[in-house]
């Protein structure tokens, strides 16, 4: 069986390829842009059959150049939520995705793709429904527009499986190239190594310092969901992919600090003790993020459960420890 993974050198895409390799699948065509230094390293230990720059892929795919493709994992996108060039974002996140979708529908190729919790924006209800979808930036809008095109496809019933995943705050191995857009866990681990403390936003939006909360989901769980859908080709839809829990940024900091201390042979501390010791510090909330920031997210995963996915998701405490152990072993 042949698979295509767009964004295959990226964070989630490379983890998807790793999972396919673990199943003995190596006929994998990767589509990506390797202009960013170091991004290739995510592919260095993976087994793939071919690689194409994203600019060279679409025409070949639509012409049937790749032959029979079992499924496409479409993870490629501009993932910078602060990108202000709307044309660039729409070309990468909407138009490119729409072209892939059109070919998948025409050829009855399965499509599993990355959407985003950014579609909900300022909404306090995180359930896939138009009434809850109010993106705060063009990134979120680009993802929502494509989701809506997919929704119209479902009415036609002339397609193979199409499953979209609204990723919440994903963290874990493979995100080193993302820089400022990497997860808060990644930033905390780097801050600890470089400065010996972590930094969080102070009070904002009626939340006390560090208490803004997100649905943090470990990348292993994200990949596990993707593999479940691969094994269940009859299930289509647009689904939230998070843990169903909102945990504060303080919880990420607390776990990151104690994981770092464990690596140094030091005892764990309570959050209060970490703050008193200067290990967790707060900074003023940036003016440029005010009005554009989701202070709270919590995935409603009822649709995912109703589809049949019943595995549990790791907590921040579990996931951050695992992530820290991975980074320590690889450095």
Secondary structure: elements and pairs:
Layout: E1 3-6, H1 11-22, E2 28-32, E3 50-53, H2 54-63, E4 71-74, H3 86-107, E5 110-116, H4 138-156, E6 162-167, E7 169-171, H5 184-195, E8 198-201, E9 213-214, E10 216-218, H6 219-231, E11 237-241, E12 247-248, H7 249-263, H8 271-276, E13 280-283, H9 302-307, H10 316-330
Parallel strand pairs: 1-2, 1-4, 2-3, 4-5, 5-6, 6-11, 7-10, 8-13
Antiparallel strand pairs: 9-12
Describe the structure.
It is a single chain. The chain has helices at residues 11-22, 54-63, 86-107, 138-156, 184-195, 219-231, 249-263, 271-276, 302-307, 316-330, and strands spanning 3-6, 28-32, 50-53, 71-74, 110-116, 162-167, 169-171, 198-201, 213-214, 216-218, 237-241, 247-248, 280-283. With 331 residues, the protein is α/β, with parallel strands linked by helices. It has a 7-stranded parallel β-sheet with strand order 3-2-1-4-5-6-11, with helices on both faces. Strands 7-10 form a two-stranded parallel sheet. The longest helix has 22 residues, at 86-107. The mean pLDDT is 95.
């Amino acid at each position: 069986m042949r698979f295509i993974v767009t964004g295959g050198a990226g964070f989630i895409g490379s983890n998807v390829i790793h999972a396919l390799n673990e199943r003995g699948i190596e006929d994998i065509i990767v589509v990506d842009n390797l202009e960013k230094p170091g991004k290739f390293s995510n592919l260095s230990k993976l087994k793939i059959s071919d690689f194409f720059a994203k600019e060279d892929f679409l025409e070949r795919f639509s012409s049937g150049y790749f032959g029979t493709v079992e499924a496409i994992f479409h993870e490629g996108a501009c993932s910078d939520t602060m990108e202000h060039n709307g044309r660039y974002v729409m070309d990468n996140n909407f138009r490119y995705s729409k072209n892939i979708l059109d070919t998948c529908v025409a050829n009855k190729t399965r499509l599993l793709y990355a959407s985003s919790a950014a579609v909900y924006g300022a909404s306090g209800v995180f359930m896939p429904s138009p009434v809850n979808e109010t993106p705060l930036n063009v990134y979120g809008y680009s993802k929502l527009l494509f989701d809506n095109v997919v929704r119209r496809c479902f009415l036609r019933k002339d397609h193979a499986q199409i499953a979209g995943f609204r990723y919440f705050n994903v963290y874990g191995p493979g995100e080193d190239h993302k820089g400022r857009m990497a997860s808060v866990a990644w930033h905390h681990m780097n801050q600890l190594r470089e400065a010996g403390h972590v930094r969080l936003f102070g009070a904002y939006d009626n939340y006390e310092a560090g208490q803004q909360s997100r649905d943090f989901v470990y990348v292993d769980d994200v990949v596990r969901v993707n593999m479940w859908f691969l094994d269940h080709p009859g299930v289509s839809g647009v689904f939230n992919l998070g843990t169903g829990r909102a945990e504060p940024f303080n919880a990420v900091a607390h776990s990151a600090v104690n994981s770092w201390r464990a690596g140094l042979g030091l005892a764990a501390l309570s959050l209060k003790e970490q703050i008193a010791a200067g290990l967790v510090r707060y900074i003023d909330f940036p003016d440029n993020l005010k009005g554009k920031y989701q202070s709270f997210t919590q995935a409603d995963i009822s649709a995912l459960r109703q589809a049949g996915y019943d595995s549990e998701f790791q907590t921040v405490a579990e996931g951050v420890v695992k992530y820290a152990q991975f980074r320590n072993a690889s450095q």
